[in-house]
């Protein structure tokens, strides 16, 4: 008997196969039992008909409890009623381990309870679908950058300097020295771009942010490309191509998952480059004219501002040229204005907020040194970084895409805590 996975069932239509699976749910009458089975690769309905499987197997099926692990044998049958397209006509059941009182039943549970049981909650249909979409975004990311001549480079996690300001750092000891958990690999990626041209990283980043919103995690994963000889406007083109690619890849390869989540895919189908560009100046003007008189030029947007700005488009939008005072030290100033920098944030539609932050970087040694001083950063920690503008400095640009916000947007999850397997939140380090 061939042992296969649910994902492989289509290739075995009409054949008798064996599956290792868990019981996700069960429903039965006097003559027939329906087992909702899952094996990690997918979900399928198993049908046990008393008259066909016999008294003993039918009695076994009726006694099965949620999350019991088992081997089932049966015939693969086409089933037009299910999104998956197949079901299993079960003829044998071999219980591996009987689970009793699984805490997450098919009824509704509160968020805190589900989060306390995150290690078990991950088994649910919805969480399974979100994790599969996360995986597809990661796969499509490697595909996009590899196909476009980028080299994957891994920046360190333990660092001595901070790219995004010092207020949100997790400090730790590195033997006798002070060290920080990386909040962005950017500065190292800039060094790598000077060695390898076009590079990208994918790794965890840490921010001790006291924010308790549906967009903030303490530990999140970032994709950070960096490109030598690439200026601000060219970087935006890479960003819109990349985001279009991941959305279209999910639409193509995660149809079952998007349907299971009830995601409105017509909104995702529209996501194709180019994306609209709006200057910060125009964004402020628009907000002030549309009922947001709480925000003035020079201030950063809050979530309601970002949501309102994105709502008038059915695309992600770039907000460009932010005031120099609200952005990090390394951003290249506008050539004709000293009050704004060559940067852009990409704001996702449907209220998911900023998914990308990026800019052209300063490559003038004196200016970079001045900016480091103005930001009161420890110059000795940035000595190596200043070397980049000392030896063959070139215009270069890069950006960081927050994976969890992107997963939340594409899968339609209401909170970023559902788009990472084990979220680290303000009050949560467990499980
Ligand atoms: O805008 P940020 O802070 O940019 C940087 O860190 C740059 N150094 C990146 C670069 O140019 N290489 O963060 C980038 C993205 C944000 O747009 C957002 O999607 C995500 O990272 N992000 C968070 N996601 C979840 N929780 C948080 N606390 C996040 N902070 C930022
Ligand atoms: Mg940002």
Automatic annotation (TrEMBL):
<keyword id="KW-0648">Protein biosynthesis</keyword>
<comment type="similarity">
    <text>Belongs to the class-II aminoacyl-tRNA synthetase family.</text>
</comment>
<dbReference type="GO" id="GO:0004816">
    <property type="term" value="F:asparagine-tRNA ligase activity"/>
</dbReference>
<dbReference type="InterPro" id="IPR004522">
    <property type="entry name" value="Asn-tRNA-ligase"/>
</dbReference>
<keyword id="KW-0067">ATP-binding</keyword>
<keyword id="KW-0030">Aminoacyl-tRNA synthetase</keyword>
<keyword id="KW-0436">Ligase</keyword>
<dbReference type="Pfam" id="PF00152">
    <property type="entry name" value="tRNA-synt_2"/>
</dbReference>
<feature type="domain" description="Aminoacyl-transfer RNA synthetases class-II family profile">
    <location>
        <begin position="131"/>
        <end position="431"/>
    </location>
</feature>
<comment type="subunit">
    <text>Homodimer.</text>
</comment>
<dbReference type="InterPro" id="IPR012340">
    <property type="entry name" value="NA-bd_OB-fold"/>
</dbReference>
<dbReference type="InterPro" id="IPR004365">
    <property type="entry name" value="NA-bd_OB_tRNA"/>
</dbReference>
<dbReference type="InterPro" id="IPR004364">
    <property type="entry name" value="Aa-tRNA-synt_II"/>
</dbReference>
<dbReference type="InterPro" id="IPR002312">
    <property type="entry name" value="Asp/Asn-tRNA-synth_IIb"/>
</dbReference>
<keyword id="KW-0547">Nucleotide-binding</keyword>
<dbReference type="InterPro" id="IPR006195">
    <property type="entry name" value="aa-tRNA-synth_II"/>
</dbReference>
<keyword id="KW-0963">Cytoplasm</keyword>
<protein>
    <recommendedName>
        <fullName>Asparagine--tRNA ligase</fullName>
        <ecNumber>6.1.1.22</ecNumber>
    </recommendedName>
</protein>
<dbReference type="Pfam" id="PF01336">
    <property type="entry name" value="tRNA_anti-codon"/>
</dbReference>
<dbReference type="InterPro" id="IPR045864">
    <property type="entry name" value="aa-tRNA-synth_II/BPL/LPL"/>
</dbReference>
């Amino acid at each position: 008997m061939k042992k296969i996975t649910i994902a492989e069932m289509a290739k075995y239509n009409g054949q008798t196969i064996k599956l290792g699976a868990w019981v996700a749910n069960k429903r039965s009458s006097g003559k027939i039992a329906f087992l909702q089975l899952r094996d990690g690769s997918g979900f399928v309905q198993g049908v046990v008909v008393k008259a066909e499987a016999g008294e003993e197997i039918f009695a076994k099926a009726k006694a099965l409890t949620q999350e019991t692990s088992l081997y089932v044998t049966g015939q693969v049958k086409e089933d037009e009623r299910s999104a998956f397209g197949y079901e299993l006509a079960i003829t044998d059941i071999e219980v591996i381990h009987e689970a009793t009182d699984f805490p997450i039943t098919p009824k509704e549970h509160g968020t805190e309870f589900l989060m306390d049981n995150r290690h078990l909650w991950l088994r649910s249909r919805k969480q399974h679908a979100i994790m599969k979409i996360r995986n597809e975004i990661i796969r499509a990311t490697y595909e996009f950058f590899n196909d476009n001549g980028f080299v994957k480079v891994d920046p360190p996690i333990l660092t001595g300097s901070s790219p995004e300001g010092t207020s949100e750092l997790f400090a730790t000891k590195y033997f006798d020295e002070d060290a920080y958990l990386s909040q962005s690999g950017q500065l190292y990626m800039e060094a790598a771009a000077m060695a390898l041209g076009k590079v990208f990283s994918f790794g965890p980043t840490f921010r001790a942010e006291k924010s308790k919103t549906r967009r903030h995690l303490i530990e999140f994963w970032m994709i950070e490309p960096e490109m030598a000889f690439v200026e601000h406007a060219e970087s935006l083109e890479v960003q819109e191509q990349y985001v279009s690619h991941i959305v279209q890849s999910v639409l193509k390869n995660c149809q079952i998952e998007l349907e299971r989540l009830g995601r409105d895919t017509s909104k995702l189908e529209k996501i194709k480059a180019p994306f609209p560009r709006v200057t910060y100046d125009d964004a402020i003007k628009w907000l002030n004219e549309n009922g947001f008189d709480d925000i003035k030029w020079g201030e950063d947007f809050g979530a309601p501002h970002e949501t309102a700005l994105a709502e008038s488009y059915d695309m992600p939008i770039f907000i460009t040229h932010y005031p120099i005072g609200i952005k990090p030290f390394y951003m290249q100033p506008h050539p004709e204005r000293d009050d704004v920098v060559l940067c852009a944030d990409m704001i996702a539609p449907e209220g998911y907020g900023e998914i990308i932050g990026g800019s052209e970087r300063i490559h003038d040694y004196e200016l970079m040194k001045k900016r480091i001083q103005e930001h009161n950063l420890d110059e000795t920690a940035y000595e190596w970084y200043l070397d980049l503008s000392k030896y063959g400095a070139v215009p270069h640009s890069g950006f960081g895409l927050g994976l969890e916000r992107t997963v939340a947007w594409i899968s339609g999850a209401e909170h970023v805590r559902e788009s990472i397997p084990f979220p680290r939140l303000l009050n949560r380090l467990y499980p």
